[in-house]
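Continuing the batch. This is chain 6 of the set; chains 1 through 5 are on the previous pages. Same settings as before, nothing changed between runs. Recording input and output for traceability.
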Amino acid sequence: MPLTSTDNIVGPAYAGSYGVGAFNVVQIEHAEAIVAGAELAGLPVILQISENTARYHGSLAPIGLASLALARAASVPVAVHLDHAESVELVREAAQLGFSSVMFDASRLPYDANVTATRAITEECHRADVWVEAELGEIGGKDGAHAPGVRTDPDEARSFATATAVDALAVAVGSSHAMLTRDAVLDFDLMTRLRDSLDVPLVLHGSSGVDDTDLAKAVTAGMTKVNISTHLNKIFTRTLRDRLRTEPGAADPRTYLGPARDAVAAEVARLLRVLAAR
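Output for chain 6:
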């Protein structure tokens, strides 16, 4: 099956009022696990690679090309997305490599500067048939820049989306990046007001801190693309630790990375079903 664009995954979900999972790739085992989980669930999925992960690997190409290869070989629709990119050059590289979407993050800038920078990226990416997600105001917990109490104003969000012509908007509704516990308090009323104010899909960042019940409620309230990273990393790391604890003499990385990959695949399948339930 050919690589599916993010628009072809998020668009139908937006129209059908169900959610799609976007899971972050740190290493190839993550990408393999996410694709395997999507195939197990029989549902589409988005592989996300962040600017931090590209930096970890030394460049975007190694992990990006590996993820694209896995996406193209998958039996379900899989898109590859650049997550939280502040670098214009990295956005351009992602488009050149074949990513179908990018999240350009100019949220640290003042509002007017964010609009100007994001609009320029959107125009450039649209010429290359690349879908653009942006962020209005930082999501709580990102580099300690905001507290989880920050909220996106619906009127400002509508003006921003119109001015930038973005394809999706990440909004602050109570979730926080890198949460280790699933007890975030979400503002469902605000989600609904944002949904009713905008005509683009809304993105919930920091969803590792949201439990299953509230993930489903968030989709019902108006969120379409749901980003999850830390939750899967916790499962991967816990499984790896357990394996090494029971087999302290293990030397072959496949003997402990494989089970960790399988555990993440199972959780991806479960989460995709939670998000897609209608």
